[in-house]
Amino acid sequence: MTYTNQDLPKAGDTVLVGMSGGVDSTLTAIMLKEKGCRVIGVTMSIWDGQLPEVKQKDPSKPIKEACYGPGEEENIAECTKFCKENGIEYHVIDAKEQYQRKVLDYFKNEYRSGRTPNPCIMCNRNVKFGAMLEGIAALGIEYDYFCTGHYARIVRPDQGLYGTDVRPCMIAGATDVTKDQTYFLYRVPSETLEKVRFPLALKKKTEVFEMAKSANLEAANREESQDFVGEEYFDMIFADKPSVPGDIIDLDGHILGRHRGIEHYTIGQRRGLGVAVSYPVYVQAIDAKNNLVVLAPNDALNADGLIADDWVWPGNVEPPEGAVVEALVKIRLASRPVPCKVERYVPAADDTTQYVGQPWKVTFEAPQRAVAPGQSAVLYQDGVIIGGGLISKAIQ
């Protein structure tokens, strides 16, 4: 399949720019302004204003800034100042309620169900490219494009998908592979992507900083924020109900120790287990029904494949019945894409899993370590996302 890069905004276009106060979004706004676009800045307000008592492991180190936290007020003030100085219209959209329901509640429910969620993926789908744009529409603001500082590209296939005439906008990798953010964006609907553009797609992060410094942007001196929240806020988020301790066991069911609540553990974890074993052990499974954390040697974490459900396909066009799709799959943000085959999964009679939509089976070319239910399996062909779903279980 071949693809065509979609045109970036041109002089005279009205462009909405999602702004965080960071160097990427700030440079995006100034680049478009200098190009002759009418730029409108917008920021989503998601912090509820509660200042938690943060427990720092190392008090000598400052708390890292995150997209959800008390630094939001300062970020909005910086965006307001920047837009005023550069003659850019600016709006703040209140998305606290949507963020609470679609991101924070999802995050807590998934962890308490023994799964490992990726809140940034749901934030992009439901808030940044959802509630925030809905808020702009409610203000009666029209625009030609919505641009952000993400490192990704928007492309369109030169042929229809799977023999159809559907040629939707799709997400492809950027020039700077070290900053690839496509994994976070796979659930954004194709119809939304029609107006989305990423002006930094062909630039490297080092080049972005150089350009920002040359333009004397204050954002060039800021430390990059981390996604979602830092570990310092973890206990605050889960403070709505007490953790339920339980047993830590090995694969044979022998009790090795006690855990402090399954929400504090993830598949593949080794540190902080609090057990004394004569060989290295890792979290191999989390049994939410019986409130158990299962430990095993490293080799026991390998999987031949996975089952994923709640799939998103570009243009809502999924592979036809009986198709076996060859692709590369990423099973977490930090993992490299690996070869796989993808086909529809028909649950066996003894499979009691409640799937969301049609589940699909992903078979790896070589075994992969620590497949975590709740994370996303994202499929790539020729550097373009062709689909993705939420991992339901590993095939071991």
Structure commentary:
The relative contact order is 0.14. 22% of the residues lie in helices and 27% in strands. It has a 6-stranded antiparallel β-barrel with strand order 13-16-15-14-17-18. Strands 4-3-2-5-8 form a 5-stranded parallel beta sheet. Strands 10-9-12-11 form a 4-stranded mixed beta sheet, with no helix packed on it. Helix 3 (96-112) packs antiparallel against helix 4. It has helices at 23-35, 72-85, 96-112, 119-138, 182-185, 190-193, 205-214, 234-237, and strands spanning 3-5, 14-18, 38-45, 89-94, 145-147, 153-157, 170-172, 196-197, 246-249, 255-259, 282-287, 292-296, 302-312, 325-330, 338-344, 360-369, 376-381, 384-395. The radius of gyration is 22 Å and the shape is globular. A hairpin with a 4-residue loop joins strand 11 and strand 12. The protein has 396 residues and is α/β, with parallel strands linked by helices. The mean pLDDT is 92. The two termini are 32 Å apart.
State the gist of this model.
The chain has helices spanning 23-35, 72-85, 96-112, 119-138, 182-185, 190-193, 205-214, 234-237, and strands at 3-5, 14-18, 38-45, 89-94, 145-147, 153-157, 170-172, 196-197, 246-249, 255-259, 282-287, 292-296, 302-312, 325-330, 338-344, 360-369, 376-381, 384-395.
Describe the SSE topology.
Layout (H helix, E strand, L loop, with lengths): L2 E3 L8 E5 L4 H13 L2 E8 L26 H14 L3 E6 L1 H17 L6 H20 L6 E3 L5 E5 L12 E3 L9 H4 L4 H4 L2 E2 L7 H10 L19 H4 L8 E4 L5 E5 L22 E6 L4 E5 L5 E11 L12 E6 L7 E7 L15 E10 L6 E6 L2 E12 L1
Parallel strand pairs: 2-3, 2-5, 3-4, 5-8, 9-12
Antiparallel strand pairs: 1-6, 6-7, 9-10, 11-12, 13-16, 13-18, 14-15, 14-17, 15-16, 17-18
Helix pairs in contact: 1-7, 3-4
